[in-house]
Amino acid sequence: MKARSPRLHPPADGPVRDGIPEHGRIPRYYAVKVDLLDVISELGQGAVLPTERELSERFEVSRATVRQAVGELVLEGRLSRRQGSGTYVAGPKLVQPLALVSYTEGLRRQGIQPGRNLISLERREAGPSLASELEIDPEDDVIHIERVLLADDERVGLESTYLTAARFPTLMDVFDPTQSLYACLRERLGVVFDGAEERVETVLATPREALLIGTNPALPMLLMHRTSWGTDGVPFERVRSLFRGDRLSFETRLGRVE
């Protein structure tokens, strides 16, 4: 493998130029990181990345510098580490639309097979906070569905859904937890989704969440909160979805503001 120094004199544009601080000095790890993007492109999805020693010799930098560059690419989802196996070139991120479509519909549009592992399906008392959002009494019951979300059998998220039990008295009898909840609500119970409010933020997973999703607790996660309502304007669903930031992104289409 021919050794070469990282690009410390970048072209006028591109990823290196974008990362140059105002003082003009490029951190060496960042230059290595950009060169690693070329290596990733050459290797292709699923290929094994050369070892730290090989990369440090190739770019004539320390292994600590290579480790920092590789670590950032892992956090960004360009690379994935497999314990005891090595570091691999990751596939493209999944795209989930910010729209009134289910997780199932969003993945199938990309040719990806969705799946779910059920953690909990239960009736429970709403409590003050959830009751306020669903406009019910704190003592009223909600149906709680918690599931690990899969994409082609890979764990990518954890979803907790709360629905007003009084509005859906037969849901637990007709719902198959391995299938789309929204399809069940529409096709079996005649529910019409008229609107929703959604908020997305970045968080770190709790130890329990990280264990269920099978991810590093230090990996940034995307947390989505959604409240949905029907044609009567009354909210009936509260969803908390936690997604791996290295494997999923959100997409929406914006229209012109008059």
UniProtKB/TrEMBL annotation:
Record's InterPro entries? Bact_HTH_transcr_reg, Chorismate_lyase_/UTRA_dom_sf, Tscrpt_reg_HTH_GntR, UTRA, WH-like_DNA-bd_sf, WH_DNA-bd_sf
List every stretch annotated Disordered: 1-20
Please report the stretch or stretches of sequence annotated as the HTH gntR-type domain.
24-92
- What UniProt keywords are attached to this protein's entry? DNA-binding, Transcription, Transcription regulation
Query: Which Gene3D superfamilies does this chain map to?
Result: Chorismate lyase-like (3.40.1410.10), Winged helix-like DNA-binding domain superfamily/Winged helix DNA-binding domain (1.10.10.10)
SUPFAM superfamilies in the cross-refs: Chorismate lyase-like (SSF64288), Winged helix' DNA-binding domain (SSF46785)
Taxonomically, the superkingdom here is: Bacteria
Name the SMART domains for this protein: HTH_GNTR, UTRA
Q: Name one GO biological process term.
A: negative regulation of DNA-templated transcription
GO MF, one term, reads: DNA binding
Annotated protein name in UniProt: HTH gntR-type domain-containing protein
Provenance organism: Amycolatopsis japonica
Its taxonomic path starts at:
Bacteria, Bacillati, Actinomycetota, Actinomycetes, Pseudonocardiales
